[in-house]
Amino acid sequence: MILSIGKLVAKRAEISPGKEAFVEHHRDLRLTFRQQDLRANRTANMLTHLGVQKGDRVAILMANSAEYMDLYYALAKLGAVCVPLNWRLAVPELAFILSDCTACTLVYDGDFDEVVTALLQPVHQLTGLNIFIRNVGAGNIAAPAHDLRTLCRQASDNSPEVAGCDDDPLFIMYTSGTTGRPKGVVHSHKTMMWALITLAATMEVSKDDRFITGMPMFHVGSSSIIMLGLYIGMTIISVREFDPADYWRQIEAERATATMLVPAMMNAMTQVPEKESCSHASLRWAMAGSAPVPVPLIETYEAMGIDVQQVYGLTETCGPACMITGEEAKRRVGSAGKGFLHTEIRVIDDQGRDAEAGAVGEIIVAGDHLMAGYWNNPEATADAIRCGWLHTGDAARIDEDGFIYIVDRIKDMIISGGENIYPAEIEEIMMSHPAVIEAGVIGRADEKWGEVPVAYVVRADDELSSVDILAYLDGKIARYKMPKEVIFVDSLPRTPSGKIMKRVLRKTDIS
After folding, report:
1. Could you tell me if 391 and 480 lie in one domain?
2. CATH code at position 40
């Protein structure tokens, strides 16, 4: 059987033509599966007219929108490769991604005109990027750009020959790098289809659900849920920007039955009056990811009749790894649950053997939804996937009943408000400051964001201040990666081999 996301779009339109597929409440835009397929056809034909071919990388710098999904499905039909860009990244970070994947086309919202103008500066050397397509917005850029909506209106809605399938790359999603450079996670039509099969077989969803999500579409969690709607015929309600008060209003207005949030979002929603003034009777459950949900927060939602189902997953797994429901989460505080159906989970010791119950080891994952590899990085791919198992770099323990507990991140990754932050990336830039001798970054628990980065710095000049450090970082990294505090120390604790002992820093960080 051929596995093709492009064919899936057309098949769902054939089976459920009049069913509501996608809703943008703020625009009062409602699309059936048939309309969604026709829009994808027009977008695909428009891209073909501009010269986009199978295998070409097309980057998308856009907020959540129907046009975003039109592009995603169109590229799937053409066999071109979608490269979602995190619009929270700084210009140098975006330039690296565009250069690394050798994108030929950039589609962007007019809201990002200034970013695109900055990307076009000669210093970034993006000579292969030659097709620019602009969605609505104010302002102008330094290079000619095609108008997305005008071209799509003029294009034919006839179905193009679907070229993408099976092991063809579907998208490249970049994750922050542990050595200062992000890696492009490649998922194929096959790995995405298996992720959808896995999600549908494990989660409590059906074609009658109305799933609302405010997570950005450049995240694998969001894109996988939207694709799950396509797979099972479920309605997706997309929120352009998360606002806790407006989220409650949209839940009420759209009669949403399920949602996906990170704990920081869940907490924010309990702090607004709309929690009481808006009806949430339709909402059965909320899926929470990125970090364990505190038991009091679970209980707050359950008191409203909303079950909390926690998930643990990675970009490399196309989303699914472990899942736990609200009741189990209260009985097993801190657990990520058990593996999804069609997903194997193990915790191994330093020798690669299964760790004993209660012992800390590394969590590894197997399944047909694992990534195809890292883009143009065979060494990193070989290090991550060994004998069919993805080595996550996350430290975990497993109890006698098979429940997984994530206890630390071997790679020192910080998760702040659902965003992954790797200390090495921040450290590398700080170390390029002429007055910085050493730098170490750790995560500190934060009530609002879950974790925030904190920097420890050994300086060569006593006049160097935290304000100087933050000013130096500004514009070089995304705002959410900026350290919330800079602490100056005489030296950093290191192992005999020279590695910074982050665990010692964490013990001393009592702020």
Report:
1. no
2. 3.40.50.980
Between CA 87 and CA 110 the distance in angstroms is 12
Flag whether pLDDT at 424 surpasses 80.
no
Confidence class for position 178, pLDDT limits 50, 70, 90: very low
Domain that holds residue 493: 414-508
CA–CA dist 475, 118 (Å, integer) = 11
Nearest alpha carbon to residue 62 among 24, 6, 7, 13:
24
* Contact present, 186 and 374 (Cβ < 8 Å): yes
Separation in Å, CA 453 to CA 173, 268, 290, 447: 23, 20, 16, 13
- State the chain's mean pLDDT as an integer: 91
Order the strands of the 373-374 sheet from edge to edge: 146-147, 131-134, 105-108, 57-61, 81-84, 169-175, 183-188, 373-374
Q: Is 506 exposed, middle or buried (0-12, 13-18, 19+ CB in 10 A)?
A: middle
Q: Is residue 181 part of a domain?
A: no
Q: Which of 228, 218, 364 is nearest to 287 (CA)?
A: 228
pLDDT at 96 over 90: yes
Residue 54 and residue 71 share a domain: yes
Residues 428 and 394 reside in one and the same domain: no
Judge whether 288 lies within some domain: yes
Q: Is 179 exposed, middle or buried (0-12, 13-18, 19+ CB in 10 A)?
A: exposed
- pTM of the full predicted structure? 0.86
Is 368 found in the same domain as 231?
yes
pLDDT tops 70 at residue 180: no
pLDDT of residue 500: 79
Mind listing the pLDDT tens digit for each residue in 109-162? 999 999 999 999 988 889 899 999 999 754 456 567 899 999 999 999 999 999
- The domain spanning residue 387 has which CATH number? 3.40.50.12780
